[in-house]
Design goal:
There is one protein chain. The longest helix has 27 residues, at about 380-410. The strands form five sheets. This protein has an eight-stranded mixed beta sheet, sandwiched between helices. α7 (about 175-190) crosses α13 (about 370-380) and α14 packs parallel to α16 (about 475-490). It is globular. It has about 525 residues and is α/β, with parallel strands linked by helices. α11 (about 285-295) links the parallel β11 and β12 (about 300). About 40% of the residues lie in helices and about 15% in strands. The N and C termini lie far apart (about 55 Å).
């Protein structure tokens, strides 16, 4: 008797558990069917975090299928990070997908979220739109947050905390975290820093705001930015009254000659892993930029997701080479979670005290307990172990996205695959006479897949494209999402916008982005 056949002696097999019926499976597709049903149940909350799944032998017997099919399905979900074996406690749901179910709103309403020119609330608005699969860039693998290690660290901290340490502390941050961050930067970013020179901030966003305030006080009202470059960073600078003249980025990084000609005295860069193209500032450009700073310029270095690399050697931070002219900013938002709101700054001596003063006025300093917990994770080696785990997981997800793009979007060019948490894809002019990436992102959203149009992050004319995050999604979801985008791209008129007010220019007028 073939037990992998869902029909035995003319009687259909099934299970009370989730009302599973293997007769629904396509021929030869039992493992795919079971995996999809379990994944859907986890996503919808029918199997919430903490739920114990049936033993493989039990579920196989109930369904009348091979135990190997159930084992394979559980293994896939384990690799996706959604379930985990707990020894005698069995197999337990440990994480649910981050994305939300599609919102019950008209397509025109959902499309308008990405069609209009992005305002200050663009990211919040887009985040609130329901989707089946969220490929928003900049979102880390929140399901992988090391909850058990964090709880152990927090308990250890609370067990040794003096009563006085629950009071107001140093606005620059706890000494313990500044020591731990200094050691981390020396080990992973090649920066030799005195802990006393570090300022703990509420993420890079706050660092940008503090620097903008400092510059405005000194009569500087312009910060040059990379183009393409982060829309969010640009918005933060502009909210403090800064102009943001664009400096083009090519396959070697920031065009320093254009920066010189611009007359700007301050520039914000992501040299280790440019957002969004993934380009690394090459050696000659790096030397040119250092010379520009040595001649009186100031560099604001956002060390964007520099730890997340897969196929290339580490790139040292600019701060390691020119400490007196570089304000360095980093965080654990991409390594752990943005919700922690923990980052750091290293400022040249002439700016440090003023930045600490502005941090004091902003919020009296970050909350001490999360700082001390993070310091414990760093010092115990838990954070390093977590980083190594994430690299393996992200590599598999990156590989899945690259393979899916090559299969379902074969005319697209992939950028930034060697590192980071996202890919950027661009399209040639030959793809269409007029290609509108905002419309393509909207068409994908109508089909339940959320992403960013590349044009959101551009001030200068540029080839159309999409910025696709992969860190928070499973390989299966990634493949499904890219297939959906491919269908949206192929749909008639789904991505054309030739009327008045179209946000993009004809493709033939745009310069090609860098390959990375």
């Amino acid at each position: 008797m073939n037990r992998s056949n869902p029909t035995v002696s003319g009687r259909s097999k099934g299970a009370d558990f989730l009302q599973l019926d293997p007769a629904e499976a396509a021929p030869g597709g039992l493992a795919d069917w079971l995996t999809d049903r379990l994944r859907t149940a986890i996503s919808t909350g029918h199997l919430p975090v903490g739920t114990r799944l049936p033993a493989t032998r039990t579920l196989a017997a109930d369904l009348g299928i091979s135990r190997g099919v159930v084992t394979e399905s559980y293994q896939r979900l384990t690799e996706d990070g959604q379930i985990a074996g707990r020894g005698r406690a069995g197999t337990v749901v440990v994480a649910a997908p981050i994305g939300t179910a599609p919102a019950p709103m008209e397509p025109a309403v959902r499309r308008s979220t990405v069609l209009r020119q992005p305002g200050l609330d663009a990211f919040d608005t887009l985040r609130g739109v329901g989707s089946r699969i969220d490929l928003t860039p900049g979102v880390p693998d929140l399901a992988a947050f090391p909850r058990a290690a964090w709880i152990r660290a927090e308990r250890a901290v609370l067990g040794n905390l003096e009563a006085a340490e629950f009071g107001y502390g140093d606005p620059a941050g706890t000494p313990a975290l500044r020591r731990a961050v200094a050691a981390w930067l020396a080990q992973y970013r090649g920066i030799a820093a005195d802990p006393d020179d570090l300022i703990v901030v509420a993420g890079v966003a706050q660092a940008i705001g503090l620097v903008a305030q400092l510059l405005a006080e000194r009569g500087v009202h312009e910060v040059a930015v990379e183009d393409p470059g982060s829309l969010g960073s640009r918005q933060h600078l502009r909210s403090w009254g800064m102009r943001t003249p664009p400096v083009p980025v090519d396959d070697r990084g920031l065009a320093v000659d254009v920066l010189r000609k611009s007359g700007a005295s301050v520039v914000m860069v992501t040299p280790a892993h440019h957002f969004p193209t993934g380009v690394v500032l090459d050696g000659e450009r790096r030397r040119d930029l250092i010379q520009w700073a040595a001649d009186g310029g100031l560099i604001l270095e956002d060390d964007y997701d520099a730890e997340h690399r897969y196929d290339r050697p580490p790139v040292p931070a600019l701060r390691a080479m020119l400490p007196d002219q570089v304000i360095y900013a980093g965080s654990v938002s991409k390594l752990l979670a943005p919700a922690l709101r923990i980052g750091w700054m290293l400022a040249p001596p002439q700016y440090k005290d003023e930045l600490i003063g502005r941090k004091r006025l902003a919020d009296l300093g970050n909350a001490a307990l999360p700082q001390l917990t993070l310091a414990h994770l760093m010092e115990s080696g838990e954070l390093e172990r977590h980083l190594r785990f994430l690299r393996r997981r992200h590599r598999a997800r990156r590989d899945a996205m690259v393979a899916a793009v090559q299969k379902y979007l074969p005319t697209a060019t992939i950028h930034g695959a060697a590192a980071g948490l996202h890919l950027t894809i661009t399209f040639d002019a030959a793809f269409d006479d007029v290609f509108d990436d905002v419309e393509l992102a909207a068409a994908a959203l109508d089909r339940g897949v959320k992403t960013h149009p590349l044009s959101w992050h551009c001030q200068l004319p540029h080839a159309p494209g999409l910025v696709l995050g992969y860190a928070a999604r499973t390989p299966t979801e990634i493949t499904d999402a890219i297939r959906t985008i491919g269908e949206a791209a192929a749909a008639p008129t789904a991505h054309r916008s030739t009327g008045p007010g179209s946000p993009n220019t004809p493709a033939r007028t745009r310069r090609r982005p860098p390959r990375a």
